[in-house]
Amino acid sequence: MAGKTSGRTLYDKLWDAHVVKDFGDGSALIYIDRHLLHEVTSPQAFEGLRLAHRQPWRLAANLAVPDHNVPTEGRAQGIKDPVSKAQLDALDENCAAFHITKFGLMDRRQGIVHVIGPEQGATLPGMTVVCGDSHTSTHGAFGALATGIGTSEVEHVLATQTLVQKKAENLRVTVRGHVGPGVTAKDIVLAIIGHIGTAGGTGYSIEFAGEAIRALSMEGRMTVCNMTIEAGARAGMVAVDDTTINYVKGRPFAPRGAAWDAAVVAWRDLHSDADAHFDREVVIEAAGIEPQVTWGTSPEMVVPVGGRVPDPAEEKDAVRRNGMTRALQYMALKAGTPMTDITLDKIFIGSCTNARIEDLRAAAAVARGHHVAATIKQAMVVPGSGLVKEQAEKEGLDKIFLDAGFEWREPGCSMCLGMNPDHLSPGERCASTSNRNFEGRQGAGGRTHLVSPAMAAAAAIAGHFVDVRQMQGEAA
Amino acid sequence: MTPFTTITGTAVPLDRSNVDTDAIIPKQYLKSIKRTGFGPYLFDDWRYLDPGDLQTDVKTRRPNPDFVLNRPEHRGATILLARQNFGCGSSREHAVWALANYGFRAVIASSYADIFFSNSFKNGFLPVVLKADEVEQLFQAVAADAAQRITVDLPAQQVRIDGGAAFHFDIDALRKDRLVKGVDEIGETLAHADAIKAYEARRRQAAPWLFAQ
Ligand code: SF4
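Output (structure tokens, whole complex):
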């Protein structure tokens, strides 16, 4: 190594700015600027506060929303599932008792916690953002240090506004050059995970860099950072630039006037110094990335749509080979099958990975003038928030989807994990724009293939996977 | 928090890598607003032949006789053996609660996902990291004799196969100390309340927009 460099990475800067107390062993007490809450991982934390007679440290840092359990249709009739209802009621009661700001079920701003934070400007560059949800990494797209935490940590943040954290190592993933037409942020991040593996980022904070990342919109960057956890890293981030600042400007929780100007000056420094040291570097050529489809039960089990289901026999590592064999069994797939031969039962367009307005536009552009294949039992579009839904309706996207045979739903996590009534039945196969293809994730025995919104829409129309670039070619 | 010092018991060999938290405790159980009662649902999809949820009486469900947790020789085990990247996926602490409620006190694997790893320490549950070949030796010892007793000794940072090999493991000094003493971490942090207030005052000056509304 050529001597010690003095530059700091973006992660180093965010870390340094939030150290309340350095414990001198690589860990520190880190101040938390923004704490997002939802109904699933917070009840036990509030219970803990009550038992210990503790109060939230700084109320304004918290923002709560129900998303995981909420029904995506017939909301006015209330929630049928009594267990889900109890959890939503608990969030209502806890937020009321502790005076925490909450967007309730019938609030037009309600939506998936990782969609509404940025949408409201509650996520700002330079913040530390935490939430009892692993996809909190999404908010790193803003040049923020955003990490998912467990329920004990939710309680810790509520009570102290801090967390004891261990500093991670720095990993930079550079996506060099530009992706071709029809290749999206989702394909980029799936290709990255396919390359470094689901444990490839463990122990690291990842900074995504390179022309292909810079060229992404904020929404695309959120998609990439969202899936950082699927590469094993708790935090993923992108440096602040004009794209970031323009996105944040004018949002309800964003600073205004003189405070805005001062904030922008500070935010301009939120990038890695030119001489910053990264513990590990990974470089990927954007031109080589094609639309991706997962074939297995882990997001790293992914191939280009033009590829085939891989053969475990060709894998040398015994543990990996077993994993592949088990995945093929669960997915009911044969090695060597072209991905485009795989037929589907259901289509899910939604989740904190891909339910923002640009995602819906991309899917609608493919769906326009076509119809969902007769063999597809259900194709759902679930907007990420009430405001995304409103915007989409203003643009007529709901019409396009409905005309094409998709269902148009109310916002929430929905079939990403099926805690609400939307789920896969055993054996059903789904093209999903969500982030996890784990066994049973979308419903016990359900089989999930992760794809981009455009690829999901294309699969809905064809009834099987198809290279969306061919469809777009035909339309042109 | 329950302190953890030394435990001796038998182990369940779960020979899989990338065991995710959805597999450890499926989503339908996350609707509970309690911290306890998750033990019967640990590894639910693998453990039972028929589906269930919080409202199903577990006694009416058919256990999958082939799943390792259900084998009679592994009843009463307190240690879980697994492969790499254990606990990947969601941040649900319910995964640790389910393992602990079931009766496990420790898991031994070659690597873990970060959030699962830190959640474990908050619940008196120890995730031990051993080298892959050491984990393999443990799998072999348990395969040879399901009643093989294993000791996890946190103060000495050792895993010992009774009458056999002993392996050293590394652990963060602060985490070890907290676990051995069963410290209330929030109470510990609140001892730094003045430092937190001083930080806030400084930060409010430098970045007032973070403290708005
Ligand atoms: S959309 Fe899916 S991944 Fe995102 S927060 Fe909801 S359940 Fe989690």
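Chain B has a mean pLDDT of 95.
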